[in-house]
Design a protein that fits this description.
By secondary structure, the chain is α/β, with parallel strands linked by helices. The protein contains 17 helices and 20 strands. The N terminus is likely disordered.
């Protein structure tokens, strides 16, 4: 895309929208189920070991079979980093993923399948290799000077991520060993603000025809902050930078959904949503509660030898507080793992019961569920310290379509490049249980457990729209709740412990319909729950 074209796009697109008479088609995102994917690791269509857009199109039927409704990618733009979070060219698709034509075909294919697509963005920074930085560094006369924030008049000191102001250029090590600089855009500059608004609008309607079959359904904004990196240089960002962008995108397509990753993981994110005009935030407090962890700014912890200790009272409290923070038109996104965190199976030290119990909470609690690719298979992985962004490769490994990494499609782009490969689950016997080809044949597999839970959520509105009422709260290890919608009651009862528990005088058992159960025996108005037993039912 020619940069001279971008400033004209906003007006053209908005005019086409008016002419075609687009209407407000607000979506209740509680009905959606997000599938969060690092596309490089999903499916390789051309044999270069890197997952790509054409490969993803080939696997859209898998997502339909699983039952998810919305795809969330990590960034697609060109970058020197394998995760693409710091762009060398905002406007281009990483060639290892495909071409711009491949991208448009991918989005259209997603929509033809009745799915939605969210694009991940981190547009606060650029890296060396980006013409804005390369041309303006030590060159104040560059036409790109306004795009990079320099703290001196000679353009010797760009502001850098993770570094104090006026630091010498720092080399960040990227897999498989390249060095890059990461610098701030000048987000206070009006030229940058206008460019960025047009940039986002482009992805909403790439050909500016008012038809959104080729456009994103929304964005995930990475690391969204009001005071960027707490440097005091870019403040009131929610109102002055992000809100105009989000408003413009929604003016163009009212259905656009904006999910912000609040920078403070101890917060619910509602203040960010309200101030910026975003629609949703991540439920980090719930993730901490399910894992029995203290809230921190990160999730880099070692798993306990016996898994985690879940406190039902704490989970109830967080759910109720979360619901009080968000309105009918704003949302909280529930998750167990993502591209920055340890895989849930590793957090619980492969405790099978805790993998299944957490899946129920992820999918059936109030909020929008997000499933990180491979979570449904129980993939393992923890971050390490290798001195580069390879630290996170273990939580971003190739989706195991089969048990053999040499089979067609398995996107093992990091094969034979370091310890992360030597220690990979692909090089252990566990892949013989993890692979999708194995789990699809086993009706009791974790994959089928997820598939059943997703089907329940999608088939019964009480689990998407219903109120939330904690029940059986006198029992320390019982996590139970009722969701109520009109005259329908949905029930979830979970034994979070290693003990067998018998519950008597349970009134709802008289007229309920069992939707899903594991390790539980029901007799009239009592039930016996083995360790990590699960009951999902409903009644009129």
């Amino acid at each position: 895309m020619n940069k001279s074209v971008l400033p004209l796009l906003s007006a053209c697109i908005l005019m086409s929208n008016i002419v075609l008479g687009q209407k407000d088609t607000a979506i209740n995102w509680n009905n959606e189920i997000i599938y969060h994917v690092m596309q490089r690791s999903f499916y390789d269509s051309n044999g270069d070991l890197h997952g790509d857009l054409n490969g993803f199109v080939q696997k859209l039927d898998y997502l339909k079979e699983l039952g998810v409704t919305t795809i969330l990618f990590t960034p697609l733009y060109e970058s020197g980093f394998y995760h693409n979070y710091f762009p060398t060219n905002y406007e281009a698709i990483d060639p290892e993923y495909g071409t711009k034509e491949d991208y448009i075909n991918f989005v259209k294919a997603v929509h033809k399948k009745g799915l939605k697509f969210l694009m991940d963005m981190e547009t606060q920074y650029a890296q060396s290799g980006n013409i804005w930085f390369d041309d303006s560094f030590e060159n104040p006369d560059s036409k790109y000077t306004d795009f990079i924030y320099y703290s001196d008049s000679l353009n010797k000191y760009p502001e850098q991520i993770f570094m104090p102001s006026k630091s010498p250029l720092y080399d960040f090590t990227a897999w498989p060993g390249d060095k890059h600089h990461i610098v701030f855009l000048d987000l206070n500059n009006e030229k940058v603000k206008h460019w960025m608004k047009d940039f986002y609008l482009y992805w909403v309607d790439p050909n500016a025809d008012g038809n959104f079959d080729d456009g994103v359904d929304g964005f995930r904004i990475d690391h969204i902050m009001d005071d960027l990196d707490y440097k005091g240089l870019f403040t009131n960002m929610y109102q002055e930078f992000w809100k105009p962008i989000f408003r413009a995108c929604k003016d163009l397509n009212p259905s656009i959904f904006v999910l912000g990753e609040q920078s403070n993981w101890n917060e619910y994110g509602d203040s960010m949503v309200k101030a910026s005009g975003a629609d949703a935030a991540f439920s980090f407090p719930l993730r901490f509660a399910i894992a029995g962890e203290e809230g921190t700014h990160d999730m880099y912890i070692d798993p306990a030898s016996n898994g985690v200790k879940m406190d039902p009272k704490r989970i109830h409290k967080v759910v109720k507080e979360s619901m009080s923070h968000f309105t009918v038109n704003t949302f909280t996104v529930n998750f167990l793992e993502n591209h920055d965190t340890a895989r849930w199976a590793s957090v619980v030290n492969n405790n099978e019961g805790q993998k299944r119990v957490a899946a129920v909470l992820n999918i059936l609690l109030p909020g929008v569920p997000s499933i990180y690719y491979g979570q449904e298979l129980g993939l393992t992985g923890q971050t390490h310290e290798w001195g580069s962004d390879a630290n996170h490769i273990p939580v971003r490994e190739a989706f195991p379509w089969t048990t053999n990494f040499e089979d067609k499609g398995n996107a093992v782009w990091y094969k034979d490049t370091g310890d992360w490969w030597t220690q990979s689950f692909w090089n252990t016997s566990s892949v013989n249980q993890l692979a999708l080809s194995v789990q699809k044949k086993d009706k009791n597999s974790l994959w089928n457990h997820y598939r059943n839970l997703i089907a329940i959520r999608r088939q019964h509105d009480v689990f998407t729209q219903g109120s939330y009422i904690p029940i059986l709260t006198a029992h320390e290890h019982i996590m139970a709740f009722k969701r109520q919608l009109n005259n329908i009651n949905g029930y979830v009862v979970i034994n979070t412990s290693e003990e067998t528990i018998k519950l008597d005088n349970i009134n709802f058992l008289k007229n309920h319909e069992v939707l899903h159960q594991q390790n539980i025996t029901i007799s009239e108005n009592s039930m016996t729950l083995k360790p990590y037993a699960i009951l999902v039912s409903k009644s009129h």
